[in-house]
Amino acid sequence: MNSKRGLTILTICLAAICALSAHKAFAQPGPGISSPSIDYYLLPSTGGSVSPDSDGFIRRWTLLEPIGKPNRSNTVFVDSYIRETFAQEYFPNQMTVVPKDGDKVKVMVEKQPPVDLTRGRPQQPTTPAAPVFERQTLTWHALDSKMFHVKLYRFATGLEKERYGVIFWAVTVLYIDEDLENVRLAVGSNSASMWWLDGQEALILSGDRRMVMDDATSKRLTIKKGRHVLRGAVINGPGMSDFCVRIIDEDGKPVRNYTIANQ
Q1: Is pLDDT of 251 > 70?
Q2: What is the mean predicted confidence (pLDDT) over 144-168?
Q3: What pLDDT digit, counting tens, does each position of 69-99 carry?
Q4: How far does CA 188 lie from the centroid of its chain?
Q5: Would you tell me how many other CB atoms lie within 10 Å of the CB of residue 82?
Q6: Which of 43, 139, 174, 190 could form a disulfide with 211, with the two C-beta atoms 3.0–4.6 Å apart?
């Protein structure tokens, strides 16, 4: 072998090794591989209250660890299915509680069927097995999102919890400085979700959808001066999961003259 040919082969081998290393560096985590830290996306809330961000998005939430609700597809998330699913009581006082960081609830969770996470999306058996339930203890986490949207998928993987076929519950508290007239709640979610203000349904987002800011808006609302509890539930089958919420005025501009707290 002449030296020129040998140098060419060596160069090709080195390039192949570099490409393989890059592929491994950017590959999605598989079973048994640690997921990115939750701190990349969410941080523990500090005391007191915060304002909406510059675009009006609410970044402070108390999130419950995901509740197992296996679904082979997001296409089942029609209005009737969502209403029936969220009407079930998964934990005591789920429509009235304002949880504190670290509070725990006991939940009867439907166990997930085996999935193959190495193929990008969960691959489930073609013949669904009969559902199996187990009681789990789940924890509430008071968190601030680093982004305008709340990355629920990263919340789940960062805590090494179920990421597919789950329900996420989110609660936050709004302190309104003066009456807000003719405003709307604007939400985007992946996948379907429902939202309640002070226990009253404000908005439902049905179907298999991606998270888009202001994807759906509520009817006109008058939110009186004082304390108000905003509550949401997001359900997802395969794929990513996140949400974003803000209040907008009649012209679609963000409303920011209020504060947000965990209590």
Answers
A1: yes
A2: 94
A3: 877 777 788 999 899 999 999 999 999 999 9
A4: 11
A5: 21
A6: 190
8-state DSSP, 247: E
Report the 3 state secondary structure along 38-75: HHHCEEECCCCCECCCCCCECCEEEEECCEECCCCCHH
In the chain, the percentage of residues whose pLDDT exceeds 90 is: 63
pTM (predicted TM-score): 0.81
Cis peptide bond prior to 21, omega within 30° of 0: no
pLDDT, tens only, 158-214: 999 988 889 999 999 999 999 999 999 999 999 899 999 999 999 999 988 899 999
Sorted by where each begins, the domain ranges of the chain are: 38-122+132-261
Pairing of strands 192-197, 150-151: unpaired
CB 228 within 8 A of CB 174: yes
Query: From start to end of 129-255, where are the E strands?
Result: 133-145, 150-151, 166-176, 180-190, 192-197, 200-205, 216-217, 221-223, 226-236, 242-248
Is residue 131 pLDDT above 50, yes or no?
Answer: yes
Nearest to 185 by CA among 236, 237, 240, 229: 229
State both tokens at 48: 């007191």
The structure tokens 């073609």 sit at: 126
Taking a C-beta distance cutoff of 8 angstroms, is the pair 115, 123 a contact? yes
In whole angstroms, give the CA distance from residue 91 to residue 167.
12
- Other C-beta atoms closer than 10 Å to the C-beta of 44 total 11
For 208, residues 6+ apart whose C-beta sits below 8 A from its C-beta are 73, 74, 75, 77, 191, 192
